[in-house]
Amino acid sequence: MSPDEEVFTLFISSTYLDNVERRKRVEDAVLRARMRPVGMERFAPSPFPVISECERMAGQCHVFLGIVGRRYGWIPDGHEISISEIEYNAAKAAKRTCLMFELPADADFNVEREFDPLPDRWRKQSLLDAFKQKYRKRPVRAPDHVRRSSISLQLLSRRSRPSSRKRESGIRWLSR
């Protein structure tokens, strides 16, 4: 890639605690595809509020990539939706391509790590279901500059670490 070529940026969004390994796999695949990953792990200290910074970055990246598991995640004070859904909304408002990967319902899991904690678990599951319905209604085609096969093949070919007794049956590609 020449210095004059634009580097495509890909914003990685997900809940964090249940997706640490998945986020790392996505970041590795994005780097191999010669794109620049953007995500909370790479945020620099900023004088701007976290939510505003997340919205700004999600809206400025070329592509938004969401990883959705069984956890809805953090709902910032004064908001009714999670930070992941706020990021998705910002990317959609900026007319960014939104690629969504969803953990299959039949994949094995650890309840304590992969579900929102009690007492809000069931309320957040309802919010998560509504979020899934929202992005499932808006499938998009990945633009040519997104090496969809590079990213999705890396994700789909990986499994949980061999030491894990539980099996992860892959991540389903939702954007068509």
Quick structural overview:
This protein is of the alpha/beta class. The chain has six helices and five strands.
Description:
With 176 residues, this protein is α/β, with parallel strands linked by helices. The chain has a single domain (9-173), classed as Rossmann fold, CATH 3.40.50. It is built from 6 helices and 5 strands, in the order βαβαβαβαααβ. Strands 2-1-3-4-5 form a 5-stranded mixed β-sheet, with helices on both faces. α1 runs antiparallel to α6 (148-157) and α2 crosses α3. The radius of gyration is 16 Å and the shape is globular. Residues 144-150 and 152-176 have low confidence and may be disordered.
Structural class: alpha/beta
Q: What's the Cα radius of gyration?
A: 16 Å
Low-confidence stretches: 144-150, 152-176
Estimate the helix proportion, in percent. Answer: 25-40%
Determine the number of helices (DSSP H or I, runs of at least 4 residues). Answer: 6
Annotated CATH architecture = 3-Layer(aba) Sandwich
Q: Which fold does the CATH topology refer to?
A: Rossmann fold
Our measurement of the CA-to-CA distance between the termini, rounded to an integer number of angstroms, reads 28 Å
- CATH C-level class is Alpha Beta
For the secondary structure, the number of strands is 5
Q: Tell the overall outline.
A: globular
Strand content: 5-15%
Order of helices and strands: EHEHEHEHHHE
How many structural domains does the protein architecture include?
A: 1
Order the strands across the largest sheet as they lie in space.
Answer: 2-1-3-4-5
